Amino acid sequence: MSESVVDFVAIAALGLAAIGIGGPLTVGVFRFVDRAGDGGDTEVDSVEAAGQLLRGGAWIGCLERAAAFATVVAGWPEGLALIIAVKGLGRYSELRHVDTGAAERFIIGTLVSMLSACACAGLALTFVGGLS
Question: Which domain, by its residues, includes 46?
Answer without folding.
Answer: 3-128
